[in-house]
Specification:
- The complex is a heterodimer of chains A (143) and B (468).
- Chain A is mainly α and 143 residues long.
- Chain A has 8 helices and no strands.
- Chain A has one domain.
- Chain A is 62% helix and 0% strand.
- Chain A starts with a helix and ends in a 12-residue tail after the last helix.
- Classes of the chains: A mainly alpha (143), B alpha+beta (468).
- At the A-B interface, helix 6, helix 7 and helix 8 of A face helix 2, helix 8, strand 16 and helix 9 of B.
Chain lengths: 143, 468
Amino acid sequence: MRDEAEYKDDSEAGDLDARRCRDAEGITTLDDSRTAKLEALCEAIVPGSARVGPVAYIDAVLGRMPPPVRDHAVASIDALDPARLADQERTPEFAFVRALAVEAYYSDFVEPGRDATGAWAEIDFDPPAARRLRKDWSWLGTA
Amino acid sequence: MAGNSVKGEYEVVVVGSGAGGGVVAGELAQRGRDVLLLEAGPHLSAVDFDRWEAKANHTFWWPLRFGALPDGDVVAFLAGRCVGGTTTINTKVALRAHAKDVAKWHGESGLTADGSRPFSVSDLEPYYARVEERLGIRERADWQPCVRTIERGMKALGHELEPVMSYTDGNCMHCGSCLQGCPTNAGKSTGNTWIADTWARRQLDLRADSPVERVVVEGGRANGVEVGGETIRAGTVVVAGGALNTPQILRRSGLDSPAIGRSLGLHPVRIVYGLFDEVQDAHVTYPISSHCMAYQHDEDGGFVVEASTIQDPIAFATTLRDDDGPFWGPRLVEAARRYRYWNGVLAMVNDENTASVAADENGQERFDIAFNERELGRLDASLEFSKEVLRAAGATQLAWTGIASTHVQGSCRMGDDPERSATDRNGKVHGVEGLYVGDGSLIPRTLSVNPSLTIMALALRLADHLAA
């Protein structure tokens, strides 16, 4: 079991990387304040995930969503407070953002330009069919 | 994949290519009928199927849909959106409906076999036999060690785990990729059987990536469909978009029968996970090779437990919860790091078609779900039994998913009573000539087993009717 300090270390390192990549690549759906808030939410929901740039993944997914669903996602981000998630963990808004944050990380996504290992190595998800994959994320619009 | 050129008029247009539409279209085309099959999603083949969950979810699964529950929780609806429909991404379990399940249908909608006697399972048996022959079904007793773990728990509780029947052939490599499409074609979808065979021979016209807006109904008769801004004329239209989409298409077509969209059955399911000290690798196996049928019937409990599976990383991590709530933070990360040590069973519950699907004033789909006390009791009992099995097998930690639905049925059910059914006993929409429903929407009362074999059997029955 890792202690809280280890998670915090991952988080801080990830945040710095995220800022660099965002500046380079651009976020198309979220504004700056929502981007920063979503970074904090992702890191609280999946500690250590910031290193892969989950917000870039979520931003791309939001861009593919029908407008009503995207509006709901943004409203859900707005409704959450990263410092009070324990009080909000059974709300539909938390469920929505949690699903996005978890998908972003456990998809094995690594934001282009980052030197990071994805989640599959961390959880030892390595079946033969996945091992043969050469992941081209262009279908998501982030390549 | 390239499609055929599409004409402006056909003898039959089939909307949706899953377990229902794929069979109807392929059967009619094979018998020389002039058929166009329309599918909302892409046309893919085994070469497109790899073990990439995120890409599959976003490219050939139906975008995730949720129905709100009164307690604030949700039901997640999962389905395929590609040629072959959900049969492309399901686990290929091939079970006939039990006689007790089919016996409920007459009471639900007045369904008879021929106008005189109640419809019974014997009316389906010839069609089951033909579907099973076509798909080459076989028993899956080739259990991996993760299934033996669950068997150990079952035996400790005095229950047997039995092999399922399945429409997978000997090319199955136990790779566990079923939900991302079978990469070896061992899994038989309607896409790689009825559709591929007739499409390759130019007997069937197929247009993928073509969601249908509505059926053209004029003067009490279906005359075609509107798709992509154009109208394609047809003497007969078969709507087979699945039990969530078919009623919405019929509503958009101007049909106002209150039976359309009502009586939606969810066959609700949870996966219950147990963490073990030994590696389980329940993600590298044929996902559903066994089941416990001890509680199948309502009077015995009303649920079936299947084994063994865990979902791929996104679905696994997204759905983890226990009595303390959804997993997140360090608790989630630690659980996910033990991914290979988790094993799971799938608990499917008999419901009573108490949900409905409709569109709101903005055209957005809306689900109304309020399980009754009996349904809630079965959901609780199935969860508790699954936990007991996993504990008895040696699990040191338990978690489970929320409620999902992959087996929607009954939203346009067939029957002899127009007040309680959307179609007649042959699937023809009441009051509209030339318009048929050809999917799981027809099933008047939810089955206690995986419904795809029954949907295919009903589709074959419809094809026979239309070809006659």
